[in-house]
Amino acid sequence: MFARLLWKAGLGAALLLLTQCRPAEAGQTPAAAQSSIKSPEERAREAVALLLAEKYESLYATFTPEMQKAASVEDWRNKVGPSLKPLGKVLETGKPRFSKVGAYTVVVLPAKFEAQWIDFTISVNDAGQIGGLFIKPGQQPVAAWQRPVYSKPETFTERDVTVGAGEWKLPGTLTLPKAQGPAPGVVLVHGSGPNDRDETVFGVRPFRDLAEGLASAGIAVLRYDKRTKVHGPRMAAMTKNLTVQEETVDDAVLAAAVLGSQPEVDPRRVFILGHSLGAYVLPMILKQDPKAAGGIAMAGITRPLEDVVLEQVEYLVPIQSGQSEEARKEGQKKLEEIRRDVAAIKALQPGQEDGPSLMGMPPHYLLALRGYDPAAVAAALRVPLLILQGERDYQVSMTDFARWKTALGGRKDVELKSYPALNHLFVEGKGKSTPSEYLQPGHVAAEVISDIAKWVNAH
To answer: What are phi and psi for residue 376, nearest 5 degrees?
Structure first.
């Protein structure tokens, strides 16, 4: 699940997005000077109105210089704007929320679309410039989550826990089976983007399904809100220093330690489950956590991120372009832009900070992953692994599953399985998978829950 300009439209959720850039210093002059400085709430509401009205040039003029550098007007027109289309019309807005982060006032504007509630989070500096714009799921989904049939709430309990300490601590939920004796445990590691502990993607909550389903089968599960959700504005300020280590790996290792320290959990049987981006970095996490009993990769890529992003866009453009000649031309234009971005990313040199970004992922982030081969790292690990893949998944394709199989297929302690009817979220569907199916309520397939539970209990 990728989320910096359109990260989450990549591996993680296909329709969500998060534009992150390092806030400029207070007092910098915007590209187009404003005749008067409006209040943070007024400026935030104006920015959202311009975005929804597709007035991208006017929106761009309100940004700080660094915000403008992070994404062009064309990026907003061709990448951000189209990703909001599946949400439908705005039906109502909620009461704004405010906080202060350094020189910035952070304004959260809830809006109810036809598909679901969305929180627009806008950082406004003292000069009235927009230094950050986040778009992520709100707290009031249109379709309430319903327990799947495999969830047996009478068989488990839940309590709050904290992952980490100090400035980056994260709230989490521990789901514990009521059965006697220390239970095996599983830590859930999110895909890309500012995910909550349920890994909510419109009408689907994969991690809540996994937590309750596995706990019903006698397995303790720890899930937690991701650092980019809890500490979003501060993470945005780390653009030139942020890597996947800070975004995901550090907290996953800490979460495994928290789970293993619980009296109801057997510390020798703590497993780490990664989905999407979490599966991509799973070998990295396991390498840094020698106490982990094994790993479960759900929809994990094995190739460079830029190659997968291009593959996703090549898949989506024909679907989203429709039948009109104008739409097809626009789609082809978008595809060519991504191809140029990918070529430029390939040409980046170590230490280069001023190169192009890809879907909002800055050069430093991508360069830190250069040469990383998840399948090769996994092959060198001596812990049991379970590799799962939905065959209808267009965000992480069967090409990646085949590479996992090539690297690990000969090992007796590795199990690989794919599911013909499942998509990227391991929800069942028919036909060609599209982003719109994520809007519909659904659950992780019962077969997946059963396979994971059997595998964990067997180890």
So the answer is: -70, -40
Residues 280 and 413 in one domain: yes
CB atoms within 10 A of CB 414: 21
Work out the percent of the chain whose per-residue pLDDT is above 90: 57
Decide: pTM greater than 0.85.
Answer: no
* Statement: residue 398 has pLDDT above 50: yes
The answer to whether residues 437 and 422 touch, using CB atoms and an 8 Å cutoff, is no
Closest listed residue to residue 100, CA positions, set 90, 92, 108: 108
pLDDT digits (tens, 9 = 90+) for 304-358: 999 999 999 999 888 876 666 777 787 888 889 889 989 999 998 887 777 777 8
Same structural domain for residues 380 and 357?
no
Give the residue numbers spanning the domain of 69.
7-137
- 125-134, 291-300, 428-437 — which one is most confidently predicted on average? 291-300
CB 360 within 8 A of CB 71: yes
- If asked whether residues 399 and 346 sit together in one domain, one would say no
- For strands 220-224 and 130-137, give the pairing: unpaired
> Closest by alpha carbon to 283, among 157, 149, 126, 404?
404
Alpha-helical (H) ranges within 145-249 are 206-216, 227-230, 232-236, 244
Helices vs strands, H then E, count in the chain: 18, 14
Residues taking part in catalysis: 276, 393, 424
Q: Say yes or no: 159 and 129 in one domain.
A: no
